[in-house]
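Q: What structure does this chain adopt?
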Amino acid sequence: MTEQLDVLIIGGGAAGLMCGRVAGARGRRVLILDHAKKPAEKIRISGGGRCNFTNIHSAPTAFLSGNRHFCKSAFSRYTQDDFIALVKQHGIAFHEKKLGQLFCDDSAQQIIDMLLAECAGAGAELRLRTSVGGIAALPDGGYRVEASCGVVECASLVIATGGLSIPKIGATRFGYDVARQFGLRGDRAAPGAGAADFSGEFPRTLQGAVRSVGRCRGAPRQDQLPRGVALHPSRAVRPVGPADQQLLGRGRGVSIDLAPGVDIAAMLTGARAASPKREVLTELAAHLPKRLAAEYT
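A:
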């Protein structure tokens, strides 16, 4: 027997559960399918198990998209403040860790439980350990989906299976394959946050050095982005924060201001005049990690 629904959502992660909550609240008959044993595994492991669930400085400019205006539309409908209000409504304690990142005081499971409760309250059903096979468009509109739980027909089909970043928790190419099946254009998949390779050998002595950085500049529009944190493992730099997503995600050249607000040349000139015998390394180390300063002396 074919099950008839208004909305079928494939993927029981953060996006799928939020979608189920909203669709159910609008009075739609909603079913969420996921092949995993537990829902929202990526939430569970995020933020070291405490879930960095949003950033108070979130804005459209902090996200990558083939359509640069997509996030403007999304943020006009739902912002970080809306989600923070939902978290507070469920009595989940949280704190700001750094650079506007908000983490649960207790466990990421609280965010998962919140989303599950919201879905249940909206009448959206979740079925786990359910695989999806064929998907076909129906002649008169809607879709027919063959799943391990049976055949489902729906007016609206949502693919919320996520990206490719963490295959160990079940990430697959499912969403990309469905997009290709229906002729949807897709940009080449690439990490949203990744290390930047140097053209030359990066000093091994800097492995593990950490530095808060100021403004980051990168082509093609010489974007200036908020302060981040740069890590230097062997021969790569891996900023943590908006900078890596906006600049490294574009695969373009990046220059990083390691001493924001400091004119290094003027500082060294003044220090030399005041204390001629003072070492350059000592002056630089006041503004940079000592190992990093040593590379420039």
